[in-house]
Amino acid sequence: MSGEGSRSRRFLVQLGGSEGLDTSLWMVPYADLMSNMVILFLALFAYSYADNRSPEYEKAVAQIEKEMAPAKTQSEADAKLREAELAMRMKEEMQRLELDDFGIRVTARYVHLTLPTPVLFDLGSDRLSPDAARVLAPLAKLFAEAPNPVLVGGHTDPVPIVGGRLRTNWELSAARSFSVIEFFVGQGLAPERFLARGYGEYRPVAPNDTEQGRRRNRRIEIRLVREVRKSAG
């Protein structure tokens, strides 16, 4: 019996403890899990600075960053989440209006909304159509909830203007931008928040050799400028 007891004790010692268990083994899978989590969040962080994100994706990333942000950067995380939620609401509003040709995307610098010109203007005109308020009024309410600057850019196709007070497509695109801004200011938004830009036909998004392409190029782009992040340089 004494020999068996001695062998049992030696066996327990070889296992690494008086109870016969190595209690440090749990650290191996735990370390692997933590490594995978770090890789996951680093990947999400990298993707959060890529361009052309959907509002849904941006909101998900912003929510994760907010939950993980230390106290000193919590205000930045809150602002980013607010901007992502605003992008989501803009998309939902345009869908409610049953606009088929609008586009909305989120980049590190902007919440970017594209509206086809026929929604707001008649062909060759810089005066808002009677139906334009149906689209712009909901946007004005959303912009009233955020202090961010807003850039409004007009784009045209290359078809020359014939007659009228505007001589070039460049003038037409700028005049349309001012018309949109004047509407927002008329809704009570601060004029100093807005900047108008006219690009004429010089930044097309489609070939101009078809009517469909020219229609895509006749557009208004509204960009909500996101708050500058220290991490973005």
Shape verdict: elongated
Q: Please work out how many helical segments DSSP would assign.
A: 8
The secondary structure category is alpha+beta
Instruction: Please write the string of helix (H) and strand (E) elements.
Output: HHHHEEHHEHEHE
Through-space gap between termini: 75 Å
Helix content: 40-55%
Number of strands: 5
Radius of gyration: 29 Å
CATH top level assignment of the largest domain = Alpha Beta
**What number of domains?**
2
The largest beta-sheet arranges its strands as 1-2-5-3-4
Task: Write down the CATH topology of the largest domain.
Answer: 60s Ribosomal Protein L30, Chain: A
Average residue pLDDT: 80
Oligomer: single chain
Main beta-sheet annotation: 5 strands, mixed
* CATH-defined superfamily of the largest domain: OmpA-like domain
Strand content: 5-15%
